[in-house]
Amino acid sequence: MTSWLTALRIARREARRAKGRSALVIAMIALPVLALSFAAASYDMFRLRPAEQAAREMGTADARLLWEFDGPIAQNPRGEGWSSSSDPVTSPRTERELLAALPPGSRVIPSRQGFAEFRTAAGIGSMLTRGLDIRDPLTTGLVTVLDGRAPASDGEVALTKEAAERLGTSLGGTIQDAGRSRSWTVTAIVEFPGALREAVVFLPTALPGDPASTTAAGWLWDAPAPVTWDQVRQLNQRGMVVFSRDVLLNPPPLEATPEMLRSTSVDAGAIGIGGLVAGLAILEIVLLAGPAFAVGARRRRRDLGLIAANGGTPAHLRRIVLADGLVLGALGAAAGLVIGVVTAFATRPLLEEYLTNQRAGGYRAFPLALAGIALLAVGTGLLAALVPAFTAARNDVVAALTGRRGSVRSRKRWLVAGLALAAIGAAVTMYGSRQTDINVLLAGLIIGELGLVLCTPALVGLIARLGRVLPLAPRIALRDTARNRAASAPAIAAVMAAVAGSVALGVVLGAEQERNDSSYEPGLPEGHALIYYEHQTAGDPVPDPEELVAIARETLPTVTALPVGQVTCPPGSPADVYCGLSPRLPESRECPWFDDAGSLSREDQRRAREDPRCEPDNGWSRVAYGNLVVTPDALPALTGATGDDLARAREVLLAGGVVIGDPRYVVDGKVTLRIDDANQPEGMVTEEDERRMPTLVVPGYAVASGLPAYSGVIISSATVAAAKLAVQPSGVVVATDRMPTTAEEDRLTGRLRELEVRAWITVERGPETHSDPTLLILAAAAGLITLGAAGIATGLAAADGHADLATLAAVGASPGVRRRLSLSQSGVIAGLGTVLGVAAGLGVSAAVLYAYNQAGAERWPVEVPYPIGVPWSSLAVVAVVPLVAMLGAGLLTRSRLPIEARRAT
Length: 905
Prior knowledge:
By secondary structure, the protein is of the alpha+beta class. Helices cover 50% and strands 14% of the residues.
């Protein structure tokens, strides 16, 4: 114990003497501690306690009720899941019926919700509506009045801040419905702590829209006594779902919940992945901070040699270096914890508004988790100092006192162990890929990475031999990198690990986005729009297509706007029948396993995969806007076809044929259409019924350019006439010269609502893309790690090569030699680590994507595989970092060569 106290005093003194190095190590350890403590405190603040959760769900009421079934149900204690074999209620229960089923002395207030269209600042939009009397004390906690007073009449509403902003109004203003037939005065600005989003609050009796179409969010129940679990189960027999405050605060045993409704247990796979990722993070910190401790041990080599010469044992030397890790780890933990918790408290409003969209439960810090994080930080500091400690304990005392370097060769056993671990990691990774077990796969990757870390010193020595053919500065840089392997090898390994992780995750995320994009099936060329309206029955007003065309030209960046129609029954047909034309696939081209997809045996799935009729790109699963009747001029706006392909499609449509996207339907230039008319069978149509339906064979052409194949058909009016059916206008297709903005779309929606019929617009905006900065953040993090590791190793080399620089000055070397030397040293560390990291990252990502693709390769229908690509944006950042590190080292290094005074002996 005494020796440890002495070591700690020496470590404290050394930390004060080497302030720059100490600050660097503290920052390295404090950064992950800051992130973890921020996450722990934020999690604890947003993890609602049972009482807080009850307030969000039911205010101050004893329970919230839903009565949606006529017979018994089963529910879990929280009321979040239920099941019933009974029929849903046909009409909403009344307050009188509810009170008759509850104990005497009960009081309930209704809570309803739905959606309605309102006039917004830009046009017309649909918003959530709540029917709730927020004057009642039962709503306290469920909703909070921020400003103004609660609505007291049917002509008053309360708005959330988000709704007020979108509607372009404020307290005391008014809002209107889409048709301007009603208006309401805004008497309050409110918020629902459990959901910070747009909402308009009415009295329950004033909720706009059809009461039958609104969703009953339930009833708030003020019970005469706490609602126990037994009472909940009794009400379940009446068909009620009950969310009870007492049950939430005092949950029953797990056995009381039906097995099918029990909450899932802890996700062991997620914990395993989290543990592996945490292990990688600790390894990264150790690799980064280790060279800094090596710098300290190298600078104190003579001091440690004096301790050994005066009777200090190797154990004493190890404790002195390990004490550095203990002291700096504790300081890093303290700094990280304080900054992390303060940051969590300070950013809580931002997290509430932009991330969780709900209010936190309170200001809390999760003390148990913070204690664990502090221990982790101190342990990480000790691990980072472990290798330098054992290296310092093995130093030759005479070499240390005389300034000689001693042995710099890598031990063969480390190389053998590294190669063995790399081989084992590759085998485990391949096994995990074949078994599609992501935990096994990640474990194999970590084992392989540890093996590469152990091989790095030998690799550095091997590359140093190239220095014989290089100029002076790079030659010295390679020699010093090999001579200072205790610091340079961990630095190179840290760069490799950071770059490998960034590249690997970048490839996987990029492949996932590309896969999602390839699976997306557009209905129109990108940027084009379709204005459409409901199928009109006889006698209903039909919009004037030319009016729709004029509106489109006024509001959208329109190039062309042309009317489109739909097939309908001829005049005089019954109002409740369907008429239409649909393509019939020849039996010889039908996939025989299509109807049984999802329940096939392995052998049948194999046969389906090998059958060209069952390929997923044959269009058997594609659906667009159905069948449209248009003139040839509308083909570019609908299909995006070009050149000869468009010309041939026009010819077929002019000849009274149809244009289709799936070539399987075209046989010898003809397409067979099934005719659905007033004589078709009523109810469910069987395969036998379909075979007896009349058909029509017309010229057909499958477009090859523009949109991918789909099962819809573009029909000429002559085809409809030949089928003895009729055409009814259904909308306008709009070709644009750019993507319409949201404001333009809102203005168009507003103009459409001014018509007597309800019309809608859909704009083809392509696959949904998320502006996820993950890849750039990872690349930036890898770049910062690369710069830090290169700076640490360059600083060590400069400190350790001080005497060499003096020798260079003595023999007449120019001042620029020092800059070129630092530039070369930084380039070796950053460049070698980056090259190894990119290679490792691409290999890792290939293994992960292979695992995912392998999982779906044996199934049918065949899933779209993950393409293997390169995240060029991430690689661009990573590739530039070594150059930045070299440039920084060259600019920040003092060019004046030092002059060393001879030590007295």
